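In this supplementary section we document a worked example of the pipeline. Step one takes a protein sequence of length 71 as its only input; no multiple sequence alignment statistics are reported here. Step two produces a three-dimensional model, which step three serialises into structure tokens for compact storage. The input and output of this example are shown verbatim.
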Amino acid sequence: MAYASGIRSSNFGLIERVAGVTGSLRDSWRRFRVYRQTVRELNALGDRELADLGIHRSNIGAIATEAAYGA
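The serialised model returned by step three reads:
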């Protein structure tokens, strides 16, 4: 009688999960850096410059969120 085992190597699964979490954290950090940089650069502009761009100072957070995380 033949016997087939469905057991996989547990190390391979663990390595995949760690790599997935690491990649996810790296992507989250990259997006957060884009958010911070966008907020920093827009806050550095004066009210007149923001008005020329059609941006109100209260919209900076929403614009930075869209730039970093998409719509």
